[in-house]
């Protein structure tokens, strides 16, 4: 006695499938549009100046006379290897928040936006529109790792 297995055929109208597909695309599109708005109002927590020192790499990361820009909290830091040793400053110009860079030819830290120039030994303004010196940061080597820490 063999039992017959009956398979019931369900009829799903084509229109219902299209509505479901259209609804899923609408939800996906809304998520793509709303996601950045939510991220704008609830950004990741980044401290202006990290409360703990930040390890940036090996001590030879910055060659003599050279510089490097590293991530340091919300804004980058500029580390310069001068004849007097390593110096670190906030890489954000005090005039218009442009990123500054080291110019080994002139021996100055320069802001390319409005021709601001800073002294590499203390971050003071040499010329240009910046109203204040660059924020000086501590830089040191411990256990063969280069660290940048809060205000010097």
Structural account:
This protein folds into 2 domains: 12-43; 54-151, Rieske Iron-sulfur Protein (3-layer Sandwich), CATH 2.102.10. It is 18% helix and 34% strand. It is built from 1 helix and 10 strands, in the order αββββββββββ. A hairpin with a 2-residue loop joins β2 and β3 (75-82). The longest helix has 28 residues, at 14-41. The radius of gyration is 28 Å and the shape is elongated. The termini are far apart. The relative contact order is 0.14.
Brief characterization of the structure:
It is built from 1 helix and 10 strands, in the order αββββββββββ. It has about 150 residues and is α+β, with helices and mostly antiparallel strands. The protein has a 6-stranded antiparallel beta sheet, with no helix packed on it. It has a 4-stranded antiparallel beta sheet with strand order 5-6-7-8, with no helix packed on it.
